[in-house]
Amino acid sequence: MRTQKRCMGYVAIVVDDYDRAIEYYTDKLGFVLVEDTPQPGKRWVVVTPNLESDCHLLLARASDEQQQGFIGNQCGGRVFLFLQTDDFWRDYHAMQAKGVRFCEAPRQEEYGLVVVFEDMYGNRWDLYQNAQS
């Protein structure tokens, strides 16, 4: 019997400019540009933390005033995205050196090591490493 694999393929994040967003996510966060395909009136732009990841970030340029209002506040100010790492300190120091804005000092929780940061738009992320890693 064949089993189907289900996973999150893409998470869309509203951005103001494709090229600025690509530069930020690839340079500051170390993501990889997977695809940048022109489409009528827009582009299909996909980045990922690594090429083996099943979940990718779709950089979606705001197309109207309503969408522009959500840039940087897609989740009402709470942590919106979670970037899991196998080496917290490596990624924390690399991101810090690139000027990523951290909202707090790293902290140890029962589930692992975590720190909140904001992307270029103000969306809040957790960088975390599971306690088992």
Automatic annotation (TrEMBL):
Transmembrane segments: none annotated. It comes from the Bacteria. The keyword Ribonucleoprotein does not apply. The keyword Transit peptide does not apply. Gene3D superfamilies: 2,3-Dihydroxybiphenyl 1,2-Dioxygenase, domain 1. InterPro entries: Glyas_Bleomycin-R_OHBP_Dase, Glyas_Fos-R_dOase_dom, VOC_core. Residues 7-130 form the VOC domain. Keywords: Plasmid. This is VOC family protein. The lineage of its organism: Bacteria, Pseudomonadati, Pseudomonadota, Gammaproteobacteria, Enterobacterales.
